[in-house]
Specification:
About 60% of the residues lie in helices and about 15% in strands. By secondary structure, it is α/β, with parallel strands linked by helices.
């Protein structure tokens, strides 16, 4: 089992990567000993905060925070990175360094087979290995390799592929150590006058590097396919997000237009209701004045309505200062004002005049009778004045105990008969 361990520091210290990895391996708690390999990454905080690479994105989105010495903590990314750009960068890097690596392998083979120049063949082969490891590192992480040591480069990337481990890991049984030899070739083949290597050994190392190059190419292609899928997914989600933003703007615009239209219409209708309320108030009260006002300094669609009534012979006062009967009659006046403005074909009234005295009941019944030209009323009442103004009466009586009977009287027919 292998894990990537990302250490974010304020300032990057000088360290030996392999030694630091071994120390951390020994420091793993006993409960975590199933972790057989730790791949170490040490990066400055400024770099982590300012860069959006696939590796850092997956570290933020899927990684687990093990330790934090201060308030700086990783936060889950709210949006995915631009995988289209990551795919394009990785593809360009892969095509470029793969081409350079393959050219160096061809030059190494030519130098080995044609001119038998072991120095150039060894140097080209070692440089080709470095190029391919650079390619693998960038495609996988989206980061540039900061070292050129084949031993460390392989150690940092070997867990990505079991095949890569089998090809280039040191073989103590057969006494094959390709990576240390490649490291020495990079230095000695270029500067050491006495450099020498056996053709059989060089040919063996060249074969292993070529197999590793094929493995790295195949793995990079798989990784690029993954980026391509994520890029297509990101493009789809980005388009959906853009559609949502446009829909939000359109809805906000529609809401604003509706609000403006409602404000205009409400002002006009409220003015008409004010006029009708004053008329209904005067007729029901036999004089006086009724006024409707909107609470100031508030949105007209959310503002409260203040009802001010002045019954005959009294001072202008707030509705809350009226008696119970006056409050009921004022409310009835407001109801009838709205009914006059836009009559409904059917209306049910349930003892709304219960608190009125007899004279006010008579005025209420007479006013109600005028409204029957456009509206059919069903009224539940116990007041005699209201019953007198009705066209038909329906009542429940109990002539015998426990037996209810319906009684109806058609007052219109009675008037016609008389």
């Amino acid at each position: 089992m292998a894990y990537d361990l990302l250490m974010v520091v304020r300032e990057t210290p000088e360290y030996n990567w392999i030694q630091a990895k071994r120390i951390l391996r020994y420091k793993v708690p006993y409960s975590r000993r199933e972790i057989t390999y730790i791949n170490l990454y040490i990066m400055p905080l400024s770099y982590v905060e300012s860069n959006k690479t696939p590796f850092l994105y997956f570290a933020h989105s899927e990684g687990e925070l093990l330790y934090c010495s201060d308030h700086c903590r990783f936060r889950r990314p709210k949006r995915p990175i631009d995988f289209a750009k990551a795919y394009a960068d990785a593809r360009f890097h892969f095509d470029t360094f793969r081409m350079l690596g393959n050219e160096l392998i061809e030059q190494a083979q030519d130098a080995f087979s044609e001119s038998r120049n072991m120095r150039l063949a060894a140097l080209f082969m070692a440089q080709a290995a470095v190029y391919f490891y650079h390619t693998l590192y960038y495609v996988y992480h989206g980061l540039e390799f900061d070292i050129h040591d084949p031993v460390v480069m392989h150690e940092r990337m070997r867990t990505l592929s079991t095949q890569l481990m089998l090809v280039l890991d040191d073989n103590h049984i057969e006494n094959i150590f390709t990576l240390p030899r490649l490291k020495s070739f990079l230095v000695k083949a270029r500067y050491d006058i006495g450099f020498d290597v056996a053709p059989q050994e060089l040919e063996m190392h060249m074969g292993r590097v070529q197999k590793a190059a094929e493995i790295i190419e195949n793995y990079c292609e798989l990784r690029l396919e993954r980026y391509k899928e994520l890029s297509e997914r990101h493009t789809f989600l980005a388009a959906q997000h853009e559609d949502l933003l446009k829909a939000e703007e359109a809805l906000i615009k529609i809401i604003e237009e509706l609000d403006e239209g409602m404000r205009t219409q409400f002002k006009a209708q409220f003015a008409r209701i004010q006029t009708e309320f004053d008329k209904a108030f005067k007729e029901l009260f036999g004089g006086g004045r009724g006024t409707l006002e909107l609470v100031e300094d508030e949105d007209i669609l959310e503002a409260g309505v203040r009802i001010i009534a002045q019954p005959p012979g009294k001072k202008l006062q707030n509705m809350m200062q009226l008696s119970g009967g006056e409050k009921s009659l004022t409310a009835i006046a407001l109801l009838f004002a709205i009914q006059n403005l836009k009559p409904s074909p059917f209306c049910l009234l349930d003892e709304i005049e219960a608190a009125l005295d007899e004279s006010n009941v008579d005025r209420y019944a007479n006013y109600l009778h005028k409204l029957t030209e456009n509206t059919q009323f069903i009224i539940i009442t116990h007041r005699r004045g209201t019953m007198t103004a009705a066209d038909r009466l329906y009542g429940i009586t109990m002539q015998e105990k426990g037996v209810s009977a319906l009684v109806s009287v058609n007052l219109i027919e009675d008037d016609l008969d008389n």
